[in-house]
Write a structure and sequence with these properties.
The structure holds 2 protein chains of 2 kinds.
Chain A (H helix, E strand, L loop, with lengths): L25 H15 L6 E5 L14 E4 L5 H11 L4 E7 H7 L1 H10 L4 E6 L34 H7 L4 E6 L3 H13 L4 E6 L11 H4 L4 H4 E4 L6 E2 L5 E6 L2 E6 L21 H7 L8 E8 L5 H15 L5 H6 L4 E2 L1
Helix pairs in contact in A: 1-6, 2-10, 3-4
Chain B lengths: L5 E4 L1 E9 L4 H14 L3 E7 L14 E9 L10 E6 L2 H7 L3 E10 L5 H6 L7 H4 L7 E5 L1 H8 L7 H6 L1 H12 L4 H11 L4 H21 L5 E4 L9 E6 H16 L3 E5 L6 H8 L7 E4 L3 H13 L3 E6 L1 H17 L3 E7 L16 H6 L8 E4 L6 H15 L2 E7 H5 L1 E5 L46 E3 L14 H17 L9 E3 L5 E6 L3 H13 L4 E6 L1 E3 L5 H6 L3 E6 L4 H9 L5 E5 L8 H11 L1
Helix pairs in contact in B: 1-7, 5-7, 7-9, 8-9, 10-11, 10-15, 12-13, 18-21
Classes of the chains: A alpha/beta, B alpha/beta.
């Protein structure tokens, strides 16, 4: 990566007019992404942004980089091809809850399993927006939408659970309205070697307005979310006096200064531990009793697929006497006629 | 070797047949390679079941390998066998109809016990009579199993391993029958079993004993001598199957173009060997992703093409269906991509190991929207190399997906291949953006050929957004403008049509004064050539035009077809190429000759049919 040139967010803005609905959460995310790209310092021509289909998948048009708006659900597979073909590129994959977890579910779990070095922004608004309001695999059970006029009867996916189940090495979560955390997690995702899943909880103002409203509300957000930071105690709340502690095998919220609880009783976040148990507990916390976990929940090291492919090629090339096509032909069983 | 009683033959067809665990494919491959090294032309056809190990001794588990070899031109694996090696009653039953009158059946007596006959659903104790095998067929009973056991009794191997070696006894016997010396066979075995010295030693022993058995006991059949081939162009040769040669074609094209080769693939019979071959070629820097499904097979390849690689995917009919939306993306994004479809019998799962030409219309039209692609069809196992190379060249120079149609018959069958040198192959010049074109749009194209200029990530100053949405002709941005869409549709079509300027004319062979033109495409070339040659020798007149460039068609297509009074289109489907030709060259009455049985044509049936037309 070249770091000699300093970039600004402007260097990553394309000349295209942004066409999302006014008030859509995606606007904030694209702005933060451009800032993160500038912060990372990778030249625009070394960046590829790949997407599938859906509102969020329009994002590549708004970034000055190489962009590819592909077909529904296949972004992860196309991005895998891009990264394996040229591992020097920084590859972002932009996807939504329908694109990623319904039609693209297979490619999602397999790119995570292989640990391809992709930075995946999963825009989760719990609805199909571009097809005008059908329930998605993350819609809450019972949600009323155009295709579920009496409420859905199916259980939703929880992206973190799916990521961990597919042996994911990186998972983070952010809210569209929390620009600071958004930029922190995007930058961390880009720095992580492997498939980084960033679940962006975004608001669809037209078809699912307020889906994350309980969290997004600025005044109560400190009490309803916890922004995790590796190596720091899991403290949250307006007065920073609440924290997470172990209760048997479960997590519980405690208040510092009550019932003899001190800061020392609060768990310290370790995003880098291989074991997923605590990461899973953190990612699965739900309101109103527990805060929703934001920030980098899991960030562990493992060999990436694209690097493994390259390394195996290098290893075999050192051993093999076949260096060119003509050598291959010479190596065949052959005779004169 | 002295032979008291040997017959000189110009050509012979031998079929090895047994349980799918009997090693018939290996036996057949060894025998054909030995023959090729001795200077014969060869053509082979493996015919195997989809089941890896069907219940032993049953009809469903029969695996066959047919080889046709000769001193003259060999175009096909042959219709009927001169010699059948049947390892059990099921193999006999499946192949009985395919043995020539006067032919030889060598069979393992030890495997023809009552229980064996029952497994093959024979109802009497004389399977030969029950099958109505002609009195002229020479039966050669050999105790293959017990002779093999005797041969290896001191080998220290367990009985199962010993019995498994009986295919080598049969091979030794056939080598004796056709005067093939043992040293080449031993050489092949040494290569194959170099890591298993005990098995190697056992195989060589059984092979030699099989040969000596024939030699010493003077089996009451005559042996055959086949002269070296005199029609073959001088040079260095190997024998190769179509899937391997197609893989080599991609490798050669990538190196010639100075590019990295990428294959995205998902296992599917009978196409998987293309992936196997490329997975071995890490030494040549080939990147293979075995994807999670057919769609990911092609979309990883599209990603690699977007990133600047020579990208390919291989599949068979059901996989091509799954890939169709993604092919449309490659059409819309105007990315180079090679799609190899090794056709098999359909629809749906159909008969996965059997050959057919039923994907033609799917390849041409099986996508949403106006979605033209270049379609080629290889016609022999060896020329799968050439067409995979040309498919890559066209894809890279014309910025288009190219579908190469082969099939189970040429994909798994083998023929002689004159070894190429990279330097002798035509240049490949990918249509890259040029220096000074910085800032040009994604749709920026050569106005004559309509080929867009290719730039990809890592090239500074060419950042762009590509995708499946319609683009503005000038600006490259997304557009729903009515007139622009039609202009883009026409542009993509013209780009594909323009390829006709760089492909060869279709050649006509056969009688110059013929009124009858036989038309074929792809893998039927061998059978059609043999049939037309035979017909012309018999005094009737016919000519043959075999198409390998399907879309666009060669420029002389209409002129060729309209010259003849009668035109018959022969294909292994219900008339797909005939339908296509009707739409491309009108005013011709196209007769059809179709076969949809999962098997290639036979020369006999073709000659019979053409005789009624010529």
């Amino acid at each position: 990566m070249e770091t000699t040139k300093q970039y600004t967010a402007k260097d990553f803005k394309s000349d295209q007019y942004v066409r999302w609905c006014p008030g859509c959460g995606d606007h904030a995310i694209v702005n933060v992404l451009q800032k993160s790209m500038a912060e990372l310092g990778v030249a625009p021509h070394e960046v590829a942004v790949i997407s599938g289909i859906g509102c969020s998948s329009r994002l590549p048009y708004y970034i000055n980089s190489y962009g590819f708006h592909t077909i529904h659900g296949r972004g992860a597979a196309v991005a895998t091809g891009v990264k394996v073909a040229n591992p020097n590129l920084t590859v972002w994959q932009i996807t939504g809850d329908g694109d990623c977890l319904a039609i693209g579910g297979n490619h999602f779990i397999h790119s995570v399993r292989r640990n391809v070095d992709l930075n995946v922004l999963l825009f989760n608004n719990q609805i199909y927006g571009l097809t005008k309001g059908q329930f998605s695999p993350t819609s809450k059970k019972g949600q009323i939408t155009k295709s579920s006029p009496f409420g859905t009867v199916e259980r939703p996916f929880r992206p973190a659970e799916l990521t961990f189940g597919a042996r994911g090495t990186f998972f983070a979560r952010t809210l569209d309205v929390d620009l600071k955390t958004a930029q922190t997690v995007m930058t961390a995702a880009a720095k992580h070697k492997g498939t980084s899943i960033v679940e962006c909880l975004v608001n669809c103002i037209i078809f699912n307005n307020g889906a994350h409203g309980w969290l997004a509300e600025k005044e109560n957000r400190p009490d309803r979310t916890i922004v995790l930071e590796h190596g720091k105690p899991m403290v949250f709340g307006k007065d920073e006096n609440k924290g997470l502690a172990l209760d048997g095998f479960n997590l519980k919220v405690v208040t510092i200064g009550e019932n003899g609880v001190t800061r020392d009783d609060i768990l310290v976040h370790d995003a880098t531990t291989e074991d997923t148990t605590l990461h899973m507990k953190l990612a699965m916390m739900e309101g109103p009793d527990m805060p929703i976990a934001m920030g980098v929940i899991r960030d562990v090291e493992a060999e990436t697929y694209d690097a493994a492919v390259e390394n195996q090629i290098k290893e075999i090339q050192q051993k093999s006497s076949i260096k060119k096509f003509d050598d291959l032909i010479d190596s065949l069983e052959q005779w004169d006629m | 070797m002295e032979k008291e009683n040997s017959t000189e033959l110009e050509q012979v067809v031998i079929r090895f047949s047994g349980d799918s665990g009997d090693g018939m494919q290996l036996t057949g491959t060894l025998f054909s390679n030995i023959s090729a090294i001795l200077g014969n032309e060869i053509s082979t056809f493996p015919d195997y079941p989809a089941e890896i190990r069907a219940p032993q001794g049953t009809i469903g588990g029969v695996s066959g390998f047919q080889v046709h070899l000769g001193s003259g031109k060999i175009y096909t694996p042959g219709d009927e066998a001169d010699v059948l090696v049947a390892m059990n009653p099921a193999a006999l039953k499946v192949n009985a109809k395919g043995v020539k009158k006067g032919g030889v059946i060598i069979y393992d007596v030890d495997s023809f016990e009552k229980s064996d006959l029952e497994k093959a659903l024979f109802v009497t104790e004389n399977p030969f009579e029950e099958l109505g095998l002609s009195d002229t067929i020479q039966l050669v009973p050999v105790q293959l199993t017990s002779l093999t056991q005797e041969s290896l009794k001191d080998s220290g191997l367990d009985n199962k391993s010993i019995v498994r070696s009986k295919n080598m006894f049969a091979l030794g016997l056939v080598c004796w029958l056709f005067n093939r010396p043992m040293d080449q066979a031993i050489h092949f075995l040494e290569d194959k079993f170099k890591k298993k010295p005990a098995i190697l030693e056992a195989n060589i022993k059984v092979l030699t004993d099989g040969f000596n058995y024939g030699n010493n006991l003077h089996l009451s059949i005559s042996t055959f001598v086949i002269d070296k081939s005199h029609d073959v162009k001088k040079g260095r040769y190997t024998s190769i199957c179509g899937n391997t040669s197609a893989a080599f074609g991609l490798i050669a094209a990538a190196e010639k173009a100075g590019m990295q080769l990428f294959l995205g693939s998902y296992p599917i019979t009978p196409a998987t060997d293309v992936m196997h071959e490329l997975a071995y070629r890490k030494d040549l820097g080939v990147k293979v992703v075995q994807a999670e499904d057919e769609i990911a097979g092609i979309t990883t390849a599209i990603g690699a093409a977007f990133a600047g690689s020579l990208a390919a995917t291989n599949t068979s009919g059901p996989g091509l269906a799954l890939k169709s939306e993604a092919i449309g993306l490659a059409v819309m994004a105007e990315l180079p991509l090679v799609i190899i479809d090794v056709q098999r019998s359909g629809p749906s799962t159909g008969m996965p190991t059997k050959t057919e030409q039923t994907d033609l219309l799917q390849a041409l039209y099986g996508r949403n929207g106006e979605s033209p692609v270049v379609v080629l069809a290889a016609s022999t196992p060896a020329n799968c190399f050439h067409y995979a190379y040309m498919a890559s060249k066209i894809a890279l120079e014309h910025m288009t997906p190219v579908i190469l149609l082969t099939d189970a018959f040429i994909g798994n069958g083998t023929s002689l291949w004159k070894l190429p040198k990279l330097a002798e192959l035509p240049e490949i010049k990918p249509h890259y953006v040029q220096e000074g074109m910085q800032g040009c749009k994604v749709t920026c194209r050569d106005e004559e050929s309509k080929v867009r200029f290719w730039s990809f990530p890592s090239m500074e100053g060419f950042q762009h957004r590509n995708g499946g949405l319609e683009k503005d002709y000038e600006k490259g941005s997304i557009s729903t403008d009515a007139a622009n869409h039609e202009k883009m549709v026409n542009t993509r079509a013209e780009k594909v049509d323009y390829v006709a300027n760089s492909i060869p004319d279709v050649e006509v062979v056969g009688d110059k004064d013929a009124d009858l033109l036989v038309i074929g495409w792809g893998s039927t070339q061998g059978h059609l050539t043999s049939a037309v040659e035979k017909l012309n020798k018999s005094g009737k007149k016919a000519a043959l035009a075999q198409f390998t460039y399907i879309n666009p068609l060669p420029k002389n297509t209409a002129d060729v077809i309209r010259k003849y009074k009668k035109v018959v289109v022969c294909e292994l489907n219900s008339g797909q190429f005939a339908t296509y030709l009707r739409s491309k060259v009108s005013g011709v009455e196209y007769l059809q000759y179709n076969k949809v049985q999962g098997q290639p044509f036979t020369v006999t049936e073709l000659v019979e049919h053409f005789t009624t037309l010529a």
